[in-house]
Amino acid sequence: MMRLDKLLANQGFGSRKDVKKLAKKGQVLLDGKPVKDLATHVDPYTADLVVGGKAVHYQKYVYLMLNKPAGVISATEDVKEKCVTDLIGDEFKPYNLFPVGRLDKNTTGLLLLTNDGQLAHQLTSPNYHAEKVYEADILGKVTEDDVKAFEQGVTLDDGYVTKPAKLSIIRSFHERSYIEVSVIEGKFHQIKRMFLAVGKKVLHLHRRSMKGLELDTSLTPGAYRELSEEELDLLRS
């Protein structure tokens, strides 16, 4: 059960003070009748609630798939930089969404935003082995020796040895390579540092999938949509 004023505030109808004003105007209906006492407790999932002629469908958690563009940071607020949450419409602002893990400022591709902390932890903790697949443009000729090095774990500049990663060479010629790499952890600038460790440089990095969830190719950079139940089941499995 939840207080009515809290429920409506959480669903984006403004502060509790704003909701009180709506009730005074007779715009808050519960079971077809105007509500005057917003301290009333209701079941948010079953209550027949209408505000300003709009039916309220309670949603505790929100899950969005974003095609992250370059030049945007994976944060909720920053005084200088544009954040991924700045790309999200006002209808989702009340949910206080946050990015699941981080993509570097100029890394593009699949980024999930949610307010479900438990699922976010399961997708980012290396203990759960949630595989993340990236495509990259590399300065340098990637070889089978690099593939073997990634399989064994690469020693980064701070001495940390990464968990085994799968590196596949899509095309490699002269001093330019196009590869696919999958990892189960997300250290700071990890993939860029892994390639630096083998004498290569990442020119562009794009995340294609996370735990089997593929980026919707119909989403243009900066566009987003809610996940389907089937996609949520895949992430929770």
Automatic annotation (TrEMBL):
Ranges for domain RNA-binding S4: 2-70
SUPFAM superfamilies the record matches: Alpha-L RNA-binding motif, Pseudouridine synthase
CDD domains, per the entry: PseudoU_synth_RsuA, S4
Keyword check for RNA-binding: yes
MF GO annotations: RNA binding; rRNA pseudouridine synthase activity
Stretches assigned to coiled coil: none
UniProt keyword terms in alphabetical order: Isomerase, RNA-binding
GO terms of biological process kind: enzyme-directed rRNA pseudouridine synthesis
Protein's UniProt keywords contain Protein transport: no
CC per GO annotation: cytosol
PANTHER family cross-referenced by the UniProt entry: PSEUDOURIDINE SYNTHASE, PSEUDOURIDINE SYNTHASE FAMILY PROTEIN-RELATED
Protein family membership: Belongs to the pseudouridine synthase RsuA family.
UniProt-recorded name of the protein: Pseudouridine synthase
Natural source organism: Allobacillus salarius
